[in-house]
Amino acid sequence: MRIFRYLLLFLFFSCSTSKYASTNKSYKKQVKAFAKILRQTPLKDSIATSSEWVGTTNMGMRKPNFVIIHHTEQNSCEQTLQTFTLPRTQVSAHYVICKDGTIHHMLNDYLRAWHAGNSRWGNLTDVNSSSIGIEIDNNGFEVFTEQQINSLLILLGVLKKNYSIPAANFIGHADITPTRKNDPNVNFPWKQLADKGFGLWYGDTSKVTLPQNFSSLQALRIIGYDIRDTSAAIEAFKRHFEQQDKSKTLTEADKKILFDLSKKYQ
User: Which CATH class is domain 60-201?
Assistant: First the structure.
């Protein structure tokens, strides 16, 4: 009878093994290697010439200061999870949010994910090293589900509290890579996030009078956009703040929004 129970337990655990068991094992192996490096004293990995090691007591782990929101541009959450567990893809994110609101935490927040690529925001050119990447299951054209947004708001609240991330530092992939990305798409509710403290938004611009020396490009730069490709920067701005990406020119109304926003980002 005892042998029979052991057999049942063996079959249960064999059948319940995660399909990502091998990639989870790889994750743990890599983290273990990183931990080994961190345990080394600076004498072993630097050009220190002193014979005596003196370790400082004032230190902390590097923490994220930005949150970058993406859409997956794939057809299912499962497809994205697979993409992020294949070494050859060389892409990853800290979190993936499925259509039913399920959140997959794929990487420790203190570790560097490969989600931002060649990007820029203000003077920051290595966005991966200072940000958390969140991918939302969406093929690039769909409306985001209520469950996804609810889960996202909960997650953002935790991240903002844990790492003291400024409201202005919740941005989209398209904001930091305007020439090659458009995510999250125009259906993304940026104002809803801003109303909760995740991102900045503009106020009533109906009575705004633009100063004579107002520069749209300077305003875009103040917000954080890379303006080397002016048309792309304008398109990214209008996608984020006006939920449209068909125009690459600025109207008078656009300029008033830019003016109001630039004052908040200063």
Answer: alpha beta
